[in-house]
Amino acid sequence: MNKSSRFGQPAQKLSFAAKITARLIRHVQQAVGSLGDLWRTPFTSIMTVLVLGISLTLPATLHLFVKNAKAISEQWDTASEISLFLKLSVTDKAAQNLVHRIELYPEVAKVTYISADKALEEFKTLSGFGQALEYLDKNPLPATLLVTPTTRASQTQAAGELLLKLEKEREVQQGKLDLEWLSRLEAIAKLIEDIVVGIGALLCLSVVLIIGNTIRLAILNQKDAIAVMKLVGATDSFIQRPFLYAGLWYGVLGGVVSCICVAILAKYLSGALSELTNLYQSNFTISGLSFVEAMTLILLAVILGLSGSYISVRKHIRAIEPTAD
């Protein structure tokens, strides 16, 4: 015998598309309902969103600092500049030939030639011994080549290998590269990146704990209602969805707050930095978060919010069982 509906008509099975549509509608209703629950407790919700947003602002700002520091370091063309001192017997023509040969190196971006006469004139100007140097019989300074490696060859190891290669040229008497300074610069940059990762991981963990504790309190406040829902047959997955959506909304709102805070800090720091860069005749400005970085930050906040809420609901909703009076 066919099953009948309450009106005496044969019950029709829902199609797969209808089931999917009904499920989506149910999720949308629960998502909107969870947002309404946050609206009904504005103080708690705002405080949680602000704590989440500010917690993510620090690692995001440190990331911004690292990104801009890398941009500044890329503008330092002389960071790994190699100085080649030529032999005193090398003529200008031979030095120019050497310049052309070195320019063909794939690791070299630019070569600047400083003749012996020009080097002497600069030394007279900078040293303050101009008159005393007039009594010299011949120029004691050699011609010099300033070799700027490419970006890839500017790393410590690559720059050192390029220096050894250049010193094998027959016109070169000695080469000089401040590898120690480069090593310190790279070590500082690596240390800052490690600090950003460490602080970011700790703050992300704190966000998960904050969201988890907030959802736990919300579950305890609705303990009786949850017990009644289980009594009438509601499943744990149905009950926990509004709390999961609450964690999602906390993540979205907290991520937006974090992006706003980072933008404000970038604007504030750019004003202070402009005063500093003007002293060095530079026009560098801080670049804020890109659209992709902002969306990534919001996505990270959503993942953290969902993680905290999921951990909380899996533990506490299962523990609530209806009891007979």
From TrEMBL:
The chain crosses the membrane at residues 248-269, 289-311. Part of the ABC transporter FtsEX involved in cellular division. Residues 199-315 form the ABC3 transporter permease C-terminal domain. The gene is ftsX. It comes from the Bacteria. Signal peptide: none annotated. Belongs to the ABC-4 integral membrane protein family. FtsX subfamily. One of its GO terms (cellular component) is cell division site. The keyword Cell membrane applies. Keywords: Cell cycle, Cell division, Cell inner membrane, Cell membrane, Membrane, Transmembrane, Transmembrane helix. Residues 81-159 form the FtsX extracellular domain. It comes from Colwellia hornerae. NCBIfam families: FtsX_Gneg. This is Cell division protein FtsX. GO terms for biological process: cell division. The keyword Iron-sulfur does not apply. The lineage of its organism: Bacteria, Pseudomonadati, Pseudomonadota, Gammaproteobacteria, Alteromonadales. It is found in: Cell inner membrane. Forms a membrane-associated complex with FtsE. PANTHER family: CELL DIVISION PROTEIN FTSX (PTHR47755:SF1). It is a multi-pass membrane protein.
